[in-house]
Specification:
The protein has 229 residues and is mostly helical. It contains nine helices and no strands. α5 crosses α7 and α6 packs across α9.
Length: 229
């Protein structure tokens, strides 16, 4: 059972503290966290693709830490900041990294590794930020709030992108092991592009938001060593 002393840390770990107030500093912290997180996410897609033998991402200028090469104004900036301001998990995405699955090593398993590289990068960043709070600086003060915001953003990106719905990264892992009929269905969905994704997102967001928020809460508490009971 959590004590009164634990509760401020739990609250800080799960949500962006007082983000609904919408102060300039809070918006800047969320936006900076989003840009850093999404840039590393996309660059690791490109790096893994290049490492496995496909130079498509490099030729399109995506093997870079320049955020301008990766951001989508709506999905990368407006959507996660708006969600954070209303107290929802700050999920988002960037421009998809182009790669040719037929050119990477190990076929569909290599393509799955390319897909997983991004969200796993976000998970590692979240763990580093959370452990720094837990073992180094403690649960109070502005640096803590900044790191916890960074942790929540990265956990949100990790959980959201692991959903196995095209074109989210989790769909690549599922595609590698799915039977042929399911692969055909996933390929059909992916061909609908951003419109299919947005329809899926907005129709199911009430359910997705609850599941993502609960998962982020659980992971955040686990990283910080805090009981939610």
């Amino acid at each position: 059972m959590s004590t009164d002393q634990d509760r401020p840390a739990v609250r800080a770990a799960i949500i962006v503290r007082n983000m609904s107030d919408g102060t300039i500093i809070q918006i800047i912290v969320v936006l900076a966290s989003v840009l850093i997180s999404i840039t590393l996410h996309e660059m690791m897609h490109a790096f893994t693709s290049h490492w496995l033998g496909d130079d498509t991402a490099q030729m399109h200028g995506r093997l870079t830490l320049n955020p301008l090469a990766h951001i989508d104004p709506f999905l990368t900036v407006l959507m996660p900041v708006t969600l954070a301001l209303i107290g929802a998990p700050p999920i988002g995405a960037a421009k998809p990294v182009p790669f040719n699955p037929s050119r990477v090593k190990w076929g569909e398993y290599g393509a799955a590794l390319v897909g997983l590289a991004g969200p796993l990068t976000n998970l590692v960043l979240a763990i580093i930020a959370g452990l720094w709070v837990r073992f180094v600086i403690g649960y109070e003060g502005l640096p803590t709030d900044v790191l916890l915001t960074f942790m929540v953003v990265n956990l949100s990106f990790f959980v959201f992108n692991m959903i196995p719905f095209p074109p989210l990264d989790g769909s690549r892992a599922l595609f590698a092991v799915a039977p042929e009929p399911l692969r055909d269905l996933m390929a059909s969905i992916e061909r609908t592009g951003i419109m299919g994704f947005m329809l899926f997102f907005f129709l199911l967001y009430p359910f997705l938001g609850t599941v993502i928020g609960a998962t982020v809460e659980t992971l955040g508490a686990w990283i910080l060593g805090i009981s939610l009971l």
